[in-house]
Amino acid sequence: MEVVYEDNHIIIVNKQSGEIVQGDKTGDRPLSDIVKDYIKEKYQKPGAVFLGVVHRLDRPVSGLVVFARTSKALTRLNKMFAEGEVHKTYWALVRSEKREVRSEKFVDDGEWHTLEHWLVRNEKQNKSYAYATEKPNAKKAILKYRLIGKSDNYSLLEVQLMTGRHHQIRCQLAAMGCPIKGDLKYGAPRSNPDGSISLLSRRMEFIHPVSKERVTVEAPLPDDPLWQAFKQ
Question: What is the spatial distance between Cα 108 and Cα 98, in angstroms, rounded to a whole number?
């Protein structure tokens, strides 16, 4: 486990692909338990350790995850995330098919571009579907993206979420004809060897819920050679 920021009220760690943030039906040990053990050992805390789960990342996604160390921080962070006061930036490696999908085309000029869809979540499939027009039970999804790097076969996109929907980045980029590398669920032609998808929660910026100071943290790039080729 890699801690990238820590104080008395919050702790931010760099999640590895394959880790789950909170316990689920798989029974695998979640990251939240690992962080609790870290706090208990480092600060020699007797009894149970408080740790609040504020948000989640999909299992195959890597990058920054924020946890609350106090109930005060948890309440305030929950409100901040709900109201969009935590600015999250993601990096995604995609193979652009350079084709129009539902009248949308991937634009690689380096400027910010906006994607808007209506997403319908299928619980049984654990998958979301994107539509250009409103559908029953659909939720509006908005993100911004820009090209920040290129290799022979892949493009590196920086993505900012305007809304928080189930599998939003994965679904919307695929709907544009740019499935994330390794994301078989959303149309990638093959999986990554380690089972990850090439989506990274790269940067977070927010005002600290207690101290009111600005916090800016950044996750390191995964060790994968393709990610490392984009190191700046």
Answer: 10
Closest CA to 198 of 173, 177, 232, 175: 173
E-strand ranges in the chain read 2-6, 10-15, 52-53, 62-68, 87-94, 113-122, 127-131, 139-150, 155-161, 199-207, 214-218
**What pLDDT, on the 0 to 100 scale, is given for residue 97?**
58
pTM of the predicted model, to two decimals? 0.92
Coil, strand or helix: which one is 70? coil
One-letter amino acid at 226 equals L
pLDDT at 96: 64
What are the structure tokens assigned to 73, written together?
């921080």
SS3 content of the chain, % helix, strand, coil (to 5): 15, 35, 50
The mean pLDDT value for 65-69 works out to 98
Residue 207 amino acid letter: I
Measured CA to CA in angstroms, residue 128 lies from 172, 176, 214 at distances of: 9, 14, 34
- Check residue 232 and give its pLDDT: 60
